[in-house]
Input
Amino acid sequence: MTKTERMAQVMTAMKSFDKVNYHKAEVLPELFALQQEMVDQVFADEVGDTSRLKIWDVENRLAEKNEALGHVADETLERFRESSKAVSNLIRSEISGSRGEMQAFGRLDKITGVHKLLRNVELSSETRRTELDGIVLTRKGAFIIEVKNTRKNILIDEEGNYYRMGEYTNWDCNIGEKMSMREALLGELLRRHGYEDCKITSIVVFTNRQVEVRNKLKTLKVSFLGPLPYIIDEFEGEDVYSSAELEAMAAAIEEERCNEEYAIDVDINQYKQEFAAVVAQLDEAQAMTDRKEARRKASIMDVLMRIFSPARVEEAA
Output
């Protein structure tokens, strides 16, 4: 089998990410499937249970093979390892986000007042599109929940810029503008359904109580998980909406929920090709080494047979 044929074989065996665009809920399962396909390709004949192996195990095993074969795939392996960083970061990000949202929704279930909770709502207009981690509809108004599961200290400055603090200060986004845009989209939706003056409040929720959060943007509320249900239950204001109206508002949001798929940030097809190229190159080198070893053994056997052949012994006699 040629290297090109082996690459095609590896690519054909990988069934994950078989389309271009995905719903958010599909991304993490597809990433896990991709990881498992790579693990199975590399460890199929070596390990019985591969379920606990990860992408970095694949990288390390391929690096071991490359070293044993005289570094024949250094450049190809390096390209694969660089792309693996982006894929691994995406997996970690998706896991972290899912875990944080589960924790936040667990706390939101502790709200005692009449309310409706909607999760992972995508809204769009002609020029804007966004995802809201959560929407809580109460008799006093609507709350947009943004979940942050971070290990870094956070600074939100007076202009709404969101910084992760550590050895270096890293700007992430302008969360003030982002939350204002989400409030505007939700407000427009509710107005279309007859709710003109619904008060909308954004709350950025941090799941890690160990980080320090400094918020200098007065128009934005922040909270850790613990106080979250109490902030909503005890929010100042009059009861405006009935239970029936909350049901109708939730139905309106569900009706206009954006169900479009989107392309993920990493070029998965290119990543698959880089993986297949490493596997094919190492397999080709291994096959060549095996052929050389077979020829060497055959040559030795031929010499031994010539020396110790019964015919030669008879001739010598």
